[in-house]
Amino acid sequence: MRGTAFSRACEERRWTRPAVFLAVYAAVAARLGEPQELTARQFHRWRQPGPPCPQPAAQRVLEEMFDTPLHHLGFDVPAHRRRDTVAVRAATAEAPRAALRFTVLGPVRVRRGEEELAAGRPQERALLCALLLRRGRTATAQELVDAVWGGKPPRSALPTLRTYAFRLRRTLGPGVLVSDSGGYALHTPADALDLMVCESYEAQARSARAAGDPPRARSLLHQALALWRGEPLGGVPGPYAQAQRARLAEWRLTLLQARLELDLDLGHHTEALAELTALSVEHPLWERLRALQMLALYRGGRQAEALRVYTDIRHLLAEELGVDPGPELTELYRNVLCASPALAPAPPPRRPPAEAAGPYHAPRPAQLPSEPADFTGRDTLVRRLTGRLAGAPDPVPPVLALRGPGGVGKTALALRAAHAVRGHFPDGQLYADLLGQDPAPADPAAVLGAFLRALGIPAPAVPDGTPERAALYRSTLAGRRVLIVLDNARAGAQVRPLLPGAPGCAVLVTSRARLADLCGAHAVDLDVMSPGEALALFARVIGEERAAAEPEACRGVVAACGFLPLAVRIAAARLAARPAWTVAALAALLADERGRLDELRIGDLAVASCFAPAYGRLAPEQARAFRLLALAHGPELSATTAAALLGRDRRDPSVGALLESLVDSGLLESPAPGRYRYHELLRLYARHRADVEDQPFTATAPTSRISPSPPPL
């Protein structure tokens, strides 16, 4: 076979063995985001004289492997697909391109400088939007399939998705769309997406308004609203885009309301009135909007028309909904009726002279996200956490480390406890998602910078280094009572710079890891819900009447979910979105273990996606153990059973260390020394990974003959 150019090139690189060639091909394909499937038969066919031209994706991988155009290796490549070496090398040495810009607050567009790039077909735009709205986070292939096609994807969805990704990568250029753990992510600067620019304007406007600078806040909101160019995500199909479109449209109304309030506060009632009138026609039942319209009319000397607005909305609410106007609108009506002086515009804030001005202090931060509306159970743990957080101040700030596996509800519990005690921290609450499960977790220096600005330190005064920022942070918190919530931490080293140094503050940390290296932290382990709590959560989401009609089926569903809150919430959300389904129908789908994880997904929420980041960070030896240990039957396994499954000597001390490392990663539980078990859904996930990655082993593994030893008496 030495006669062909392709064979000679393989021999020069020592790729003549099919296994070696296929491994190199798969690695290069993964780096380029191309399909990795290739058979030994295809490899042998390429080594024959006159090999046929591969598909475009395979052509790109081969040209990357050999660093030469494919027709130089003897392949019959059509003229329009040929790339000579000069062109390939020149492309890598071209001048830096202009920055990319993406717009989603209107029709979806991509620009490079002043040039508008083709955003592709509707489904390709749906893929682009799904990646953009994840803000750099990796989306799995299945999540993207759901986003583009919804619940009924075509059979060729995955190959088609890869084709769309290839076209998108070719449009955007190198280094923008990257492959990661079987999925995709867009790596772009924060100011490349108009949505994130708009969010930045909103945050600055909120800070300016709180700092007593309403004119600047109004100007910033004008800039934010100027970014909108019509219906968001215009022309993008799919259920994901539809849900995001509704969310963004609601957010725009929130921005508009804030700007109109500032218009009236600053005396621009005449300018605002025309816009308020048009919006009232578009949203006739929006009471806050009608209140602003009444206020604008009254301040413009049109008292009678302001009263008529109230009469109109009162009749409309009675006819449409059978309710009366709310307290705010009713109180405003009374004030307009008696021409209350309280309706006069407030005078502009007086600023002290520059020489008399003291140091700038921002208002107390209130950064806690809202707690889940359907939070259920956990009463004992809530009391335990709130008692520690709101107790008498200790000489050392209390640090509570809430630890548990993915999907167990750590964030929901932390927010429930934090909201319950926020009154005990009058100087504010700080919150940060440390992105512990992301490929790039949050940098403590960046978090410190955000906290310092929220605490009133002007941006130019924030130092550069992490130690300097941490020192200023501790100094700023001294003498204050502030609650700090650090969500989704990866390790203690990420948390330590964010801890206060003086008494009065308290810290609540959530993590999948044990954070044993976080000295002084009080660990609180969070397990799955009790059957009663899981059933109550399920009934709360689907409706009490629906749950009462099929109690046995409801118990079957929550049991199949392993009482894991995330799984229960996903199952309930699926049922709530399908009113024609019975609970028994969902229970039957979940009864099949082989397809259970596939059923536990809705939108961009999936139980398997929750487990994937922790698994992806395992070392190869840990990942293999996690997969193979799940093949044992029974609720628990011993170190001896684990050694047998892993092919180790039963007295090998490294087996115990390996098992404990999986416990520390949150992928395995240890109910007693030397005893280990999986959560049922984690076991199914591990077996799925074993089917994918260890097919030769799992096909012949004698799992029926390896049973874990019974628990000790």
From TrEMBL:
<keyword id="KW-0805">Transcription regulation</keyword>
<dbReference type="Pfam" id="PF00486">
    <property type="entry name" value="Trans_reg_C"/>
</dbReference>
<feature type="domain" description="OmpR/PhoB-type">
    <location>
        <begin position="90"/>
        <end position="188"/>
    </location>
</feature>
<dbReference type="InterPro" id="IPR011990">
    <property type="entry name" value="TPR-like_helical_dom_sf"/>
</dbReference>
<dbReference type="Pfam" id="PF03704">
    <property type="entry name" value="BTAD"/>
</dbReference>
<dbReference type="InterPro" id="IPR051677">
    <property type="entry name" value="AfsR-DnrI-RedD_regulator"/>
</dbReference>
<dbReference type="InterPro" id="IPR027417">
    <property type="entry name" value="P-loop_NTPase"/>
</dbReference>
<feature type="DNA-binding region" description="OmpR/PhoB-type">
    <location>
        <begin position="90"/>
        <end position="188"/>
    </location>
</feature>
<keyword id="KW-0804">Transcription</keyword>
<feature type="region of interest" description="Disordered">
    <location>
        <begin position="344"/>
        <end position="375"/>
    </location>
</feature>
<keyword id="KW-0902">Two-component regulatory system</keyword>
<dbReference type="InterPro" id="IPR001867">
    <property type="entry name" value="OmpR/PhoB-type_DNA-bd"/>
</dbReference>
<dbReference type="Pfam" id="PF00931">
    <property type="entry name" value="NB-ARC"/>
</dbReference>
<dbReference type="InterPro" id="IPR002182">
    <property type="entry name" value="NB-ARC"/>
</dbReference>
<dbReference type="InterPro" id="IPR036388">
    <property type="entry name" value="WH-like_DNA-bd_sf"/>
</dbReference>
<keyword id="KW-0238">DNA-binding</keyword>
<comment type="similarity">
    <text>Belongs to the AfsR/DnrI/RedD regulatory family.</text>
</comment>
<dbReference type="InterPro" id="IPR016032">
    <property type="entry name" value="Sig_transdc_resp-reg_C-effctor"/>
</dbReference>
<dbReference type="InterPro" id="IPR005158">
    <property type="entry name" value="BTAD"/>
</dbReference>
<protein>
    <recommendedName>
        <fullName>OmpR/PhoB-type domain-containing protein</fullName>
    </recommendedName>
</protein>
